[in-house]
Amino acid sequence: MKARLLLIPISPLALVAPCYAVTYLTVEQAQTLMFEGSLLTRDFRTLTPAQMQVIENDSGVKLVNAQLNAWRDSAGGWFLLDQVIGKHEFINYAVALDARGAVRQLEILDYHESYGGEVHLPAWRRQFVGKHHGSPLQLNGDIKNISGATLSCGHLTDGVRRLLATYALVLASPEH
What we know:
Blueprint: H1 11-14, E1 22-23, H2 27-34, E2 40-42, E3 45-46, H3 49-59, E4 67-73, E5 78-85, E6 90-97, E7 103-111, H4 122-125, H5 150-171
Antiparallel strand pairs: 1-7, 2-4, 3-4, 4-5, 5-6, 6-7
Helix pairs in contact: 3-5
């Protein structure tokens, strides 16, 4: 009896990868959580090339988007919506600043990577509370790394440092 070789196309199967997309909060849920009972006023801005250059020079972080998604709190604080790349996918996050520009809270809204989701854990995010423009904000310095989440930790740390520079140089500075 002759053996027959059954050919099964495996290339479509090889392209299927597990999907790890988690939405923790919507923008509206994050705003309510971070500014409960406060009125937030939308204050979106398009940064000029000069502003982008000043922010990049100050923070050491390249800006890839000129759009600043910001809401002002009635008490002078800010809700800033941003995204950074994890390893391959974007991490959407929000930062709440108090009226002096210090971080009140950091929330992860969406996380799409297969590893590194531990950046969502409260203990890691609490490291940013109280940080302000001029704080070192260095991974493995004042911000602890999470093994297996190094890129997510580093990029979020850079993103917060960039947002703090944006606050100080654009939002809090009337001459910009």
